[in-house]
Write a structure and sequence with these properties.
Oligomer: single chain
Structural class: mainly alpha
Largest sheet: none
Distance between the termini: 83 Å
Strand content: under 5%
Order of helices and strands: HHHHHHHHHHHHH
Shape: globular
Helix content: 55-70%
Number of strands: 0
């Protein structure tokens, strides 16, 4: 008869020096504030999919917080001619947009009947009221002053929006960098817009034509131009994924915030953040 083999003693990480007691030390949960984060999901119905809906939007807001942090840093870097640093930051922003895009794949597993079970609990709340999303749009140049109104009840949020409107957009900072590289642009391209999104300007289009026809000569501008195209590409995909997700989950019903739902989102697909960079590709 074969002798029965005794099971190996369970591995104890402490034997290799791992810290196992945290009564008086900072733990992983302490550092990340997990007690607050993991108890911030307050479902208002008994629908199982409401937790999915809440977590998807909360995690998206966390990614947007990081996105704003990186966009502010990139704008400052470009404004001070620290272009290698800015390139890394803008590349990271595009990777963040990838994460935001992937989140729609999870939400799309929810069916219309799943959503209907808790839709009324949302009241008038809607994603278009996201303060951080609005700040991101303002940094990128889509400065629609009317969109400050949903935040009028929030003095701190309103102050953040007003502060952003007093700053140059990311694109304007890039255009000012181009001027420091020897290009000349109309002053109204560079002044801070307070109430309207950026509209295509022929002089800016000509600038990018010059850059793209001779990338090696204008490499810094060519590189930042491509980073902006990457960012807008991901941003457009995010909007498209938003539209298709809403169509799949709620159809063509009005949005909870009172918008036309899909019709409103489709209108947003027409917004161009850096129009000259897209249009220049058709004339090269």
């Amino acid at each position: 008869m074969t002798d029965k083999k005794e099971p190996d003693t369970a591995y104890n990480p402490a034997d290799d020096g791992a810290e196992m007691a945290f009564a008086d030390k900072m733990s992983y949960g302490d550092y990340l504030g997990l007690a607050k984060i993991l108890t911030a999901q307050k479902a208002l119905s008994d629908a199982p999919d409401e937790l999915l809906f809440i977590i998807q939007h909360q995690t998206s807001e966390l990614w947007m917080k990081l996105m704003l942090h990186e966009l502010h840093a990139a704008r400052d870097a470009i404004d001070n001619d620290r272009m290698p640093e800015a390139m890394k930051l803008l590349a990271r922003v595009s990777r963040i947009m990838e994460q935001l895009n992937s989140a729609w794949d999870v939400l799309r597993t929810m069916t219309p009947s799943d959503y209907t079970r808790f839709r009324d609990a949302l009241g008038q709340s809607s994603g278009f009221q996201s303060l951080q999303y609005r700040l991101i749009e303002y940094v990128l140049g889509n400065r629609n002053i009317a969109m400050t109104k949903p935040h009028a009840h929030d003095p701190d949020g309103t102050a953040l929006l007003e502060c952003e409107l007093e700053k140059p957009t990311l694109y304007q900072v890039v255009l000012k960098f181009a001027c420091r590289q020897g290009f000349t642009l109309p002053e109204d391209c560079l002044s801070v817009p307070s109430s309207a999104p950026h509209a295509a300007v022929d002089a800016v289009k000509e600038l990018w034509q010059t850059v793209y026809r001779d990338p090696s000569r204008y490499w810094a501008l060519y590189e930042v131009g491509e980073k902006l195209v990457d960012l807008e590409d991901y941003f457009r995909r995010w909007r498209f994924n938003h539209v298709t997700t809403v169509e799949r989950v709620i159809g063509f019903k009005r949005g909870t915030g009172g918008t036309g739902g899909v019709s409103y989102l489709k209108r947003m697909l027409e917004v161009e953040l850096f129009p000259e960079l897209w249009h220049v590709r058709t004339v090269l």
